[in-house]
Amino acid sequence: MLAVSLLPERYRKKSSLEGTGSLVQAAIFTGLCQVIVFTVVFIVAFMSEAPSYFEPASNAVLNSQKGPSMNVMDVRLTTGVLGLAGFLLQPLHLFFAYMAIEGGVRTLYAFSFGEILPTLPLGLVSSIHNIFEARKRRSLRRDEIQPARNDTYDLHVLSSRPKRNWNRYIGIRFHNELYILAGEQSEEGPRPFGYLLRKSPANNIMVVTCNYDPDRE
Description:
The chain has 5 helices and 6 strands; from the N terminus they run H-H-H-H-H-E-E-E-E-E-E. By secondary structure, the protein is of the alpha+beta class.
């Protein structure tokens, strides 16, 4: 349950816990744990690594052009700002700080509104998943053109959607060739609609024609 409370909505929906009060309580608990754990980690990292940031900052201030003329308070203040900035701008330290703040936001949001916010790393995974799924859907929307499977027609069109405007009484223009609908059949897979196209005879006059472009269907 605790792990589910960290997940984005698209993954939580696969769990029977989605929408329950116990999952909201789990989100509050994991948010508080997130605040405590990453705050402690941040403080420990600061205490152990601070000298390596403040000493170079102090030397830089004292060796600057205005260093000799600065009073002690100005030196300490400038050194503190530079050292703290150097510590905070490290990617790992920024991550610790962000995760602590995120835990507080997740806890407050779940407590105040009864809603669950996912943690950012898993949210990014979900966003990447959404991008790949969108690309897959776009690729499936494009018709697939195959050679004829027998000599009774010339082109086999596989589509993910029915072509309600195609019938035996209209001409279908594709790559500067005019075709007529010779038949339809059901297919297996993501493109279940199959259309059999036959080249229109030269002496066959079609009153109604439509242009067919698989990329625009």
